[in-house]
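Risk register update: the risk of archive-format incompatibility is retired. Evidence:
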Amino acid sequence: AREMLRIMLQLAGHVVYEAADGAGGLELLKAVSPDVGIIDLSLPRMDGYQVAQHIREDQHGRGMLLLALTGYDSLGSKRSSEHGFDYHLVKPVDPDHLARLLSEGAEGAFQEISP
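Archived output:
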């Protein structure tokens, strides 16, 4: 799923960096300064909520657009908001909607997006 998302985003013209787990993602944050983080909530060793909290503690991370990505329904959307995510996306993600989110950026209000 991560590879398909990467390919889709690259085909849309985005520069994509990826990590297989939360610790790798946080290390990547130190090396590059991404504008957006798409974070699966079910990561090994460190879940996506923990990753988002660490990102929001970083000076650059405070301004990033953070998208929670999950295969579960909306039950976690409140928790996503509490942990610093701007949007809660439920798989499968609509590519057109994701493209709009990435082009518009965060508009200041948390939103849950379900298929």
